[in-house]
Every structure is written in structure tokens, then in C-alpha cells.
Design brief:
Low-confidence stretches: none
Helix content: 25-40%
Strand content: 25-35%
Number of helices: 10
CATH architecture of the largest domain: 3-Layer(aba) Sandwich
Largest sheet: 8 strands, mixed
Radius of gyration: 23 Å
CATH superfamily of the largest domain: Zn peptidases
Order of helices and strands: HHEEHEHEHEEEEEHEEEHEEHEHEH
Distance between the termini: 36 Å
Strand order of the largest sheet: 1-2-4-3-5-16-6-15
Number of strands: 16
């Protein structure tokens, strides 16, 4: 808990998690481990127990993310962020501490030869960026020798002491869409003599999501939502330039491959009769996290053994994106939802400055992940 509070008070943004990386490495070195810092200097991996070469069986990996968000901390805790405009509002401080705690448990088992197969801890940078830090970990060999990989994510809608599970997709594909608009502009008293860029922007905002929903199977859950709309500087001037930014999310991976082209065509279709020129930039983000059925079964066994059968909660697929998905394109695995709500207390939301998880979730997450690693290893020994 002390470590989590230190990380929470000293958050670092994506790709600059230098102090957090050093802190985690130092904690692992204290228990005799040999962490390996990733080539770019942020993030690390650490192997516990026998290697796959020694045992002839793959490693089991546990993954955490290190980065915080560029939003102010609005909690009133004594360990609130000391960095202006930066906060651990998604629970990555909880994830990091839970995986580190699991690592310490597994290291003790390894000391007395009770860890028969190896476990790799992955502390990755830049989950909050797209396409995320996971590809960096993979490129650096972070999944070499790994047969299965597991992670958890804070879930403020679930009570502490419960874990949410789902077979199949549990998150969605998530991309960034940026549209740059250009027109001739002019005086608002003569819109008929201009290319009314603001009107065109409004048409794109309202019509393109509708076109998207009627061009792709609605069962794929395609969703285009705008977050930024910028144009103009005076109420009586039709501007010459404007920008729209939003996110494109898909429940289905096949729709994910198709949706970008549909958006591009829809924007051009809407703009054509209005004379506004549009440039669409579609930045591919992350695919859905698709949980393997056998891996979820391992999670289920861990929940039942550690917390009891009533602690298992069936959860729906989220429209949120997670770069953990990239690991699952290389190895079998799953992500679980870790309950962080104080029973009877307030339901917080992620990515909000006042997000305040119940810290009892840390110890629960540590034990849960340690048990998951042990149970996942069993299949290779039978």
C-alpha cells in the first residue's frame, strides 16, 4: 500500500515513466531478482523461477502498466498527485503494485523450490497512448518463451473482493480519427458566397456516425464519438480552417479493419456538396482484447480458490481500448476486471481525476495473480 501511494503521488506520463521504472526495479532487486529495463529506458521485465530452457515448458507472464493520465488529481487523499495536471486516474498504480506483490509471493515460492515453472513480470510503459507500449515490449523480446499472459484492470463498478470475467472479447478496438477542414471562409452576413466550414463541421459531427452505423453490420458495435471540435475565432467570421478529433471504436475485429475506409468515404460524401475540403487521418490504435477460453478458466479457478465462487462476476464487453490486446495476438491469455468499489460506497469512473479505488483491491489482486500463475503452470506439468 505504501508503494502504491508513492506511485500515485508521483505519476508519470506515457513514455517518460523513468522514476516509476526505477522504483519497481529497485523493489525487485531487494528480493534478489534481476529486472531488465527495456531498451528505451522505461518499462521492464523480470523472470522468476526456472527458465523455459531449464524446464522445457513456456513461461507464464503477468503484465502491469506504469503510465498516468494528463489530467489533474481531484482526490482529497494525503497522497494525491504532486505533479500538476497528471494523475493515476485509471488505476495503473494499482495494477503495478498488484503485479509487483504477486511477483514477491512467487519469488518466495521459488526460493523454496515450490515454483516449478517460470513466471515473467512485465511492467510496460505507455498504455494510454495508441498503439500503446505493448508493441515495444514485444519487439524487445518481452514475450519470448511465454506461453500465456495475464493482466487485470481496475473496475470501479465492481465491489472490492470480486473479479469480473468474460470469455471472448472484453474490450474493443479503439482508433483516433482527426479531420482537418479547409474552405474559403468569409463574412457571416454572406454565407451563400462562402464555403461555410462550421456548417460542414456540424454535418460531419451528426451525419458521419449515422452513415457508419448503416454501412457496417450494427452487431459489430461500431461507434464514432467526437471529443474535440475547433474552428473560428470571431462570431461574425466564417473560418477557413477547422479540426475535428474523436475516437472510432469497434466490438468486432473484422469491422475494425473496415471502419476506417467507411469513415473516410462518409466524410468526403458529406463535404462534397458544401465545397469544403477534408483530410481524414485515421490513426490505428488497438484491436479488441479477446480472452482465451482456457485462460479464463484458469482465472475462474483462481477466483474460486482465493475468494470463493460468489466473487466471480460475469461482465460485458467494454467499448474501452486496451493495448494488452497486442499480447494476445502472440500468446494465449486473458484480462480480468478487479473490483475496486467500497461496498455500499460511491461508484467512480475511470479517467476522471477523482477516481479513488479501495486499496484493499491491491492485496486481492496480488494474491489472485499469483494463484493464476501457479494454476496456469499446472497444465504444463500434468
Amino acid at each position: 500500500m505504501k508503494l502504491r501511494r508513492h506511485i500515485h503521488a508521483h505519476p508519470e506520463l506515457s513514455r517518460v515513466e523513468c522514476d516509476t521504472t526505477a522504483l519497481v526495479a529497485a523493489e525487485l532487486e531487494k528480493i534478489g531478482m534481476q529486472p531488465r529495463i527495456l531498451p528505451n529506458g522505461v518499462g521492464l521485465t523480470c523472470d522468476i523461477g526456472p527458465s523455459e530452457v531449464e524446464t522445457g515448458v513456456p513461461l507464464v507472464a503477468l503484465r502491469a502498466d506504469l503510465d498516468a493520465l494528463p489530467i489533474p488529481d481531484e482526490t482529497t487523499s494525503s497522497f494525491a498527485s504532486t505533479v500538476p495536471g497528471v494523475a493515476h486516474a485509471c488505476g495503473h498504480d494499482v495494477h503495478t503494485t498488484a503485479v509487483l506483490g504477486a511477483g514477491k509471493v512467487l519469488a518466495k515460492l521459488a526460493e523454496v523450490d515450490l515454483l516449478q515453472t517460470g513466471v515473467r513480470l512485465i511492467f510496460q510503459p505507455a498504455e494510454e497512448l495508441q498503439p500503446g507500449g505493448a508493441p515495444d515490449v514485444i519487439a524487445a523480446g518481452g514475450l519470448d518463451g511465454v506461453g500465456e499472459v495475464y493482466a487485470l484492470h481496475c473496475e470501479p463498478k465492481l465491489d472490492v473482493g470480486t473479479v469480473g470475467l468474460r470469455v471472448g472479447p472484453i474490450t474493443s478496438a479503439s482508433d483516433k480519427v482527426t479531420i482537418s477542414l479547409r474552405g474559403d471562409g468569409g463574412h457571416t452576413s454572406r454565407p451563400h458566397l462562402t464555403t461555410d466550414l462550421v456548417y460542414a463541421m456540424g454535418a460531419i459531427i451528426t451525419e458521419v456516425p449515422g452513415i457508419l452505423g448503416r454501412s457496417i453490420d450494427p452487431r459489430s458495435g461500431v461507434n464514432l464519438t467526437w471529443g474535440i471540435a475547433n474552428a473560428g475565432s470571431a462570431p461574425n467570421v466564417i473560418p477557413m480552417t477547422g479540426t475535428l478529433e474523436g475516437t472510432l471504436r469497434c466490438l468486432d475485429i473484422e469491422a475494425w479493419h473496415e471502419a476506417g475506409d467507411v469513415v473516410d468515404r462518409a466524410v468526403r460524401t458529406v463535404c462534397a456538396p458544401l465545397g469544403v475540403r477534408a483530410e481524414v487521418r485515421h490513426n490505428r490504435g488497438v484491436p479488441p482484447v479477446v480472452n482465451d477460453e482456457q485462460a479464463v478458466h484458469t482465472f475462474k479457478r483462481a477466483v474460486h480458490q482465493m475468494l470463493g465462487e460468489s466473487a466471480e462476476i460475469s461482465v460485458e464487453q467494454s467499448l474501452g481500448g486496451e493495448d494488452f490486446a497486442w499480447y494476445l495476438t502472440k500468446a494465449r491469455g486473458a484480462m480480468a476486471r478487479l473490483g475496486t468499489r467500497t461496498p455500499g460506497g460511491r461508484i467512480y469512473d475511470l479517467h476522471q481525476g477523482d477516481f479513488d479505488p479501495d486499496e484493499r483491491a491491491i492485496a486481492i489482486g496480488s494474491r489472485f495473480l499469483a494463484m493464476t500463475a501457479l494454476l496456469a503452470s499446472e497444465q504444463y506439468l500434468t
